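User: Design a sequence. Structure:
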């Protein structure tokens, strides 16, 4: 039986094992997918030797890189990895998040675009979002709790800045199960029907961040399209397709 998995911490929110094990059962694939919650990235050494590939989630999308032998051109450019192939004793890192982000933005834009964007968070998922926005020539600012990491801190987000930023993307775990009532610190009363909100969180699908946008008349996109697209892309990579 082939073995695949997911590394990160915490993993209680993840639907990856359910997604892949249902896929394996449905398609008659002799494989299993299981979570490996690592207390620190150094524990990657404890992964079973027979594992053929694994996904990477918070907080290890960037810190996993020193433990890999190769990177795809996209993963190298982004500086973050969410999919690893284990073959012939070597680990190769890829970034399939960008595939899911592209599909999600295509659906959200519905043929339109955004003049500027705010990216909430500066971790590995944020790096993938920045890559895709740069592809589309959409200027953006990053927001972090740490003033040394982002262009802005949350204290800088006033009504005027929110009104000027049509696209707002949450790449943080705020609102993720089980802490479903948390949300990024924004002046939500500045949102209106012009705004486009995209949350990479997929559990729950309608986060407090997205609910606030919808109540203001904004178009919203949850993280499920991204989750599904990046997972299917990981499967293709693991199988050399």
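Assistant: Done.
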């Amino acid at each position: 039986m082939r073995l695949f998995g997911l590394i990160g911490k915490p993993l209680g929110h993840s639907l990856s094992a359910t997604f892949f094990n249902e896929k394996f059962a449905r398609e008659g694939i002799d494989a299993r997918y299981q979570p490996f919650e690592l207390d620190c990235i150094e524990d990657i050494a404890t992964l079973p030797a027979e594992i053929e590939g694994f996904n990477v989630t918070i907080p290890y999308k960037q810190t996993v890189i020193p433990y890999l032998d190769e990177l795809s051109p996209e993963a190298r450019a982004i500086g973050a990895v969410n999919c690893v192939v284990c073959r012939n004793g070597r680990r190769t890192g890829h970034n399939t998040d960008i595939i899911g982000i592209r599909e999600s933005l295509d659906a959200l834009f519905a043929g339109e675009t955004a003049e500027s964007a705010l990216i909430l968070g500066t971790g590995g998922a944020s790096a993938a979002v920045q890559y895709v926005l740069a592809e589309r020539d959409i200027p953006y600012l990053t927001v972090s709790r740490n003033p040394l990491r982002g262009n802005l801190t949350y204290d800088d987000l006033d009504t005027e800045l929110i009104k000027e930023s049509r696209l707002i993307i949450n790449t943080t775990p705020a609102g993720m199960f089980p802490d479903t009532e948390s949300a990024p610190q924004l002046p939500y009363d500045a949102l209106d029907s012009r705004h486009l909100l995209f949350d990479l969180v997929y559990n729950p699908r309608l986060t407090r961040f997205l609910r606030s946008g919808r109540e203001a008349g904004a178009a919203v996109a949850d993280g499920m399209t991204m989750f599904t697209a990046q997972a299917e892309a990981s499967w293709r990579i693991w199988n050399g397709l």
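The helical segments are 16-27, 73-78, 97-109, 124-135, 159-164, 208-215, 224-238. Residues 108 and 221 are 6 Å apart (CA to CA).
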